[in-house]
Every structure is written in structure tokens, then in C-alpha cells.
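FAQ
Q: What does a multi-component entry look like?
A: The components come first, one per line:
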Amino acid sequence: MKVLILGAGFGGLELATRLSEELGGGAEIEVIDKAPGFVFGFSKLDVMFGRQTPDQVFHPYAGLDKVGVHFTQTSIRSIDPDQRSVLTDAGRFDADVLVVALGADVDASATPGLLESGNEFYTTSGAFVLRDVLDRFEGGDVVIGVTSTPFKCPPAPSETALLLHDHLTKKGCRDNSSISLVMPLGVPIPPSPGASTALLAAFDERGIDWRPERMVTALQTDPKRAVLNSGEELPFDLFLGVPVHRAPAVVTESGLAADGWIPADPFTLKTRFPGVYAIGDVTSVGTPKAGVFAEGQASIVADQIIATSRHLSTSKTYDGRGICYLEFGEGMVATVDVTFLAGSAPVGDIEGPSIALAASKAEFGASRVHRWFGRDAPADPGSAAPN
Ligand SMILES: Cc1cc2nc3c(=O)[nH]c(=O)nc-3n(C[C@H](O)[C@H](O)[C@H](O)COP(=O)(O)OP(=O)(O)OC[C@H]3O[C@@H](n4cnc5c(N)ncnc54)[C@H](O)[C@@H]3O)c2cc1C
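Then the predicted structure of the entire assembly, as C-alpha cells:
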């Protein structure tokens, strides 16, 4: 059986690992990604705030060594879901089973002024550039703003506000700064009232200006200000933006997408094309765009591929559950255990924040690096001295 996995992100790496573990050389697993390596979403914040270096958070695909798995670094130019084939810069690939795990792209140019007057922290390059920008920043008005929905990791802007508070405090310029957080949501984490209450209390204690149910539509210069869809304008010296998200163009051009994302069965992750699955951020299955959900979906697709290859069937279905880590600043992390089950209202419970959960988050990342790449992760970011 030939399995073609498009994208070696959170979902693709977990899927390739499970298939290798359970099928060994019994399947040909081809993984394609245009990037040279993987960076966790949360590592972007670690680099931005000086807790880790870019080298420490970059996990190269070179040397990926798993039985039955072959990795090709190349750009996918077109996908034919009827034929389960793709055209890439390295030629054509065909498969019996095709899994689309291409994530969400971000488009900073879709928000007027964002590239010219602001910064975005959702791409690896954008977050890495911000490390120096934040290091040099000597205080002023900071706006953290979301520009559209859906967006990856809905807690990330809130975490950014809290980590920025720490960063400016340590630099001694929190007193001459303001931090505003512009979010489209009514509360920071809608499925978890407990987590939302804890975050709102943390914002209040730290003087972070919470602006719910709004989005940033444009940035203006002279003077610099963020224009919100409410009509308000917020002056800024530094703007940290969450850009517009879209499925990669190769997906929208393939006929797989509807309303911008790939609709898949929320329990099996099957698309309407036989033998084609979609997992993670590229889908519209109703879970938030976060790595933990991509990973859980990969596991269910793995169960089905493994069963098929053994001429069996499986009754396992996706449970919509994910445990998200939430940075509260001051070295403290909370977890939010959320379940987004199709047909039911999402629910979530918070634990922490605590120092112990910061260690658990570091272990979460290290265990994935070990499992996916067979390497030990570098130092725990929680123990690195913030600058
Ligand atoms: C600041 C920030 C913080 C975050 N924090 C967390 C967190 O704490 N916990 C959490 O669970 N999630 C977090 N996330 C979200 C998480 O990073 C993503 O949701 C997750 O990576 C999605 O996994 P995926 O497999 O769907 O896609 P991705 O991991 O994005 O992988 C998609 C892959 O497809 C490749 N690709 C795309 N197009 C092509 C093409 N045409 N040809 C070849 N390759 C292509 C890309 O190079 C990429 O490697 C965070 C995100 C950000 C931005």
C-alpha cells in the first residue's frame, strides 16, 4: 500500500510516525513538505520573547529515519483528488491513500498597512524577526490584534499579551507602555468559562486593555494607528498582528475545499473523494486550528489506514479532545482540556496555572521531538532566562 502524506507539520509527522510504528516496511509512506524542517507554533513565542534561539526550535527533516517512510522536500503545485496524485517541483507522486495535512497559510498583505507599519508573529520568519524588534523596543503603545477568523491557536494572542507584559516589566519599560489586545471573540477561550475568567483576571491585574468582539481591518501611518471594524482607532508604537488565514492555494485550486477549507467527516476525517483524508488546520471539521487537534485526527486516520492494510475495519472515531497549554507569564502555564465533538457544544476545564504545568508543556514538546525525529530536544524553554 502506498500512502502519500502532504505536509510534515503536526498532523503529518504524527501520522507518518504511527504508520511506521505499526506497519513498518509493510507500506510505502511518502511524506512531502516544502519546508526544510518543523517549528512548533508555541516555539514562535519562545523565540520572540528571547526564551529560546531559532536554532534550538528548528527540527530539520534531513535525517528523518523511520522504517517505511521516505521524505521529499519539494513544493506541491497541484493535487488531483480523483487520481490521488500530486504534481510537485520534484515530479509526480501517486498513492492508494492520500492524506492532506497542509495546514493554514497566512496572508499579511490582506490587511492594508500590516506589512508596512506593523509586525506579524504567526509565521516563523515574522516571529523570529520580532525577537530583535522586542529586544530593541524601549516602551510605548503596543497593540496585539487579530485581523480575521478563523485563526490558529485562539489562546496565542492572549499568551502574547501576558508574555509581553513580563518582557516589558523585565526591561523596565512597562510603566511607559500600554498593551491592548483586540480579539474577535467575546471571551478569551469561549469553550472554557474557567480559563476565560482566569485570563480576564490576569489581564486586569496587569493593566492589559482587553478589546473583545473586534478585529483590526487596517493600519494607518502618520500617526500610526490600528483601525478596528468597530470604527475605533488605537494609536500604536508597536503592532503585533495575527494575519488573515487561508488554506494553501494548491488546496483551494484542487476542488477539495468548500468555503475556503476542506470539509471532512468530523469522526473519520474522510473527504468526499474515496481514499482521500484531510487533517488539521486545512479542514473545517469544527475543531480549533491547533496542533493537538491535528495530532488527534492523524491518529484516527492512522487507525483506518492500518486496519485497511490488514484487511480489517475499525470502529474508532475522532473524539474532538485536546489538551492545550496556556502561558500565563511569570513562568506559569495552565492546561485547558477541551472537547469539540460534532453535534455537541464544546466544553473545557482549566488546570493551573502552575510551575509544574510549565514543566509538563516542555515535556510535551520534547516527547514529540523524540517520537517524530528520534532526537532529544534542546533545553527546556521554561528554564531559560527570559531577556
Ligand atoms: C504563535 C502560535 C502559537 C501556537 N501555539 C500552539 C500550542 O501551544 N498548541 C497547539 O496545539 N497549537 C499551537 N499553535 C497552532 C499549531 O502550530 C498549528 O495548529 C499546527 O501546526 C497545525 O498542524 P497541521 O499539521 O494542520 O499543519 P502545519 O503544522 O502547519 O503543517 C503544514 C505543513 O504543510 C506544508 N505545506 C503547505 N503548503 C505546501 C505546499 N504547497 N507544498 C509542500 N508543503 C506545503 C508546510 O510547510 C507545513 O510544514 C500555535 C500557532 C501559532 C502561530
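Q: Is there any commentary attached?
A: Sometimes. For this entry: The pocket of flavin-adenine dinucleotide is lined by residues 7-12, 32-35, 41-42, 44-45, 75-76, 101-103, 121-122, 152-153, 156, 248, 250, 280-282, 289-292, 294, 324-325 (CB under 6 Å).
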